[in-house]
Amino acid sequence: MEPSKTTHSRRSFLRSSLLAGGGLMISFSWLPEAVKAANGIDAGVPGQWSELTGYIRITPDNVIRILNPNPEFGQNVMTSLPMIIAEELDADWEKIVVEMGPHDNVKLGPQFTGGSNSVRMYWKPMREAGAAARAMLLQAAAGTWSVPVEELTTKAATIFHEKSGRSATYGSFATKAAAIPVPKEIHTKAVKDFKILRKAQKNVEGSKIVTGKPLFGLDYHQEGMLIAMIQHPPAFGMKLQSFDASQALGMPGIKDVFSLKLYPEGFEQGGFDTRTFNELLVVVGKTTWEVMNARKKLVAQWQPAGDTKDTMAGRNGKREVTVPGELESTDSQLAKMEAFSKQPAQQLRKDGDPESAFRNAAQIIERTYNAPFLAHNCMEPMNFFADVTDEKALLAGPLQAPGWTEPTLSKILNLPPEKIEIRMTRMGGGFGRRAYGHYLSEAALISRKVKAPVKLIYTREDDMTYGIYRPMYTATYRAALDANKNLIAFHVKGGGIPEHAIHANRFPAGAVDNYLAEGWQIPSNITIGAFRAPRSNFNAAAEQSFLDEVAEAMGKDPIDLRLELLKRAKEKPIGEKNDYDADRYAGVLQLVREKSGWGKPENKKYHRGVAAYFCHNSYAAHVVDMVMKDGRPFVERVYSAMDCGIVINTDAATNMVEGAVTDGIGNAFYGRLSHKEGKAEQNNFHRYRMIRHSEAPDKIEVHFVQNDLDPTGLGEPPFPPVFGAVANALYKATGKRHYDQPYLNPPPKTATKPENKRPF
Amino acid sequence: MLKLNINKKDYELNIDPNTPLLWVLRDIVGLVGTKYGCGIAQCGACTVHLNGEAVRSCVTTVSRAAGQKVVTIEGLSVNGDHPLQQAWLELDVSQCGYCQAGQIMSAAVLLKENKNPTDKDIDNAMEGNICRCGTYLRIHKAIQLAAEIQRKG
Ligand code: FES
Ligand code: FES
Prior knowledge:
heterodimer; A: alpha+beta; Aldehyde Oxidoreductase, domain 4
């Protein structure tokens, strides 16, 4: 056993208490600073990081319940976090009951799904919660049997005293253990002794999913509940002028039609209070279909909103931001980006003397990459249940960050946080979209207005045209080579609507003597939000395509070039703030090179592309094997190498990487949300092309670097480099470099037969 | 009054005959395993069986289903142990899980009609079901595994 490095006297505290009816409940709390320090989590994440807690309940009949604190959106956190506790508790995983915890940031910690952070932030607290509970149970047993605690061992939630041949379950000591003070020093297991972690454990909700149990927000039901839908302005930059509800009100089942203002005048928005439209039309009725029909009968006039002002809350006080009123079109956006890219920009990092290196270069390679807005397209559209009165609020549904939304609800409902209960349902995808809780706030205000429990449902069209997209990006990369084809300078200048994507301290920063990174941005009324590996998902496309082209110009193998640069970054790093570990970066490239049989003649039949990227403290590399069929590129095989430290749940982690690869191919090939005069041109899946079954690779082989390092991110890191690897394979397949995403635009038709087999 | 038979149970509903079966199942009958994803027959999340055929319930009016046999994910098997459900669990297919009921319902019709589907058969049958989480590869393997379970009886 290794003693845990954290002492509990100063920074954290454990509490244990008797459950009603006996049994041990242990809750584990941490001050946010300690969590950040322990796990290297970026303290800049907006919102409040409160205490961290894990929950264990053991009943006298040895039923062990573990509360999962974090919202589940498909990253399998409902399984992986409780696994960590069960491991240290030395429980029998097969017999653990997992429950979704309530929203309680004090007891259960940040409860935030995003930034590939769930396991990272809960790793240490959950291990210690499990280990502390085990220690208390052991002490209770030692007392009861009058034997030294050192002579006791545990296995599968049972305590053994070998000398005397005695054994008993955890449950039989649970009541007694609850009265024992929490140990001052907590001993967690040595990694080599793990029995539950680093193995494949099945999704704890798997059978509920395949039998169609109500799990998701859209499935949430309460007696007497009404259905609500919004009608938002038809275009970004428009607002409501007037409306006539009389026809809609006359439709069957309709209870109310009204306009709703979300935030009051001067409301100070936090980073995740993004909403595209502050005033919406709302239709409330008995059933979804009735409300859908009535909504079609709304007569509304919309008008240009003109420039508007938002008040943003900030660390240094509030500030006013102007939201431009222009009705934007994709063509005008691209033209604007091109013009901006020629203007001076903000310098983000500079090493050496890039200007003179470029002046003296024997060869300069310059390429510009563009990428469109992307819609998240979670399969479950935005929705939320709300039952709000003047005294209290109950909300239930899919969201990633209850702790960020609750303060907003508290303000707009004028209710103290303790009167607001948020229940987290399983989410039908999130990908960043559900960190923005405007739809919760809308549901809450609607419920209060109609004085009834209400479920707000966005249709797919509402969801896709609402905004909160992945931003539109561009970046121009330049590389300077000397007469011997050495890379002597590297320059990236990136911009976007409304933000640029540049991570100035990432590779190849640190590996090139002369380096310059710059950024600029263009404000817009099109709202944006985090989208699976924000910014990285563009950088890894552009930078990794560019490096491929630079390698070609240098006459080098693309993996060799990267490894040489990483060697340089390791041995003689340039600058100080390089935020990656060159060895681990090189490690995934070497692993993928080996596993994919890179350069082996038997793989000649494939057009191969490689890319690697670092984000969320993890490293990912892919080799994509492409084939052309009927003039169309298909990714047939993918080899992936990941370094995310200790892998909690091996098969689930593999699934996550497979999914990221497939999602990445789809978005790289087809993902595109364009605009015409402020209007989103794609509003449903007949216009927004998603990757389909036959277009997924036949094989995705996932390899994890084996090490004992604390776990780092996994949901996002494998996603970004897929774009680069696809672009590089596409070049091999077509002889053409692809600089603009999506790479297949317009997309090829699907083989989908949308109609049912029999016409109706 | 419309007569419906859903998962071997009879229902008599007083309802607008143009209502899509999806919303009848979800809002009226309370079977929410069938999901809404697009409403325009593009994503497959709402797939159910109508007289043994896979239909998108979001565009199937309830009047068309009247007097017919409707099977939803809740009724696919009595104990949740249809070969597809077993295979789905064995290969731990799901990520968010939202699309999976529809995927399974599409696959179930394929397996009923084709005991030994080829890759191409699976591709064709599953092309209408979107999974944003990207679990297609596992879905594909799970269908093959289910076919094997089914063949072995
Ligand atoms: S909801 Fe019916 S196919 Fe998408
Ligand atoms: S598992 Fe999430 S959409 Fe398929």
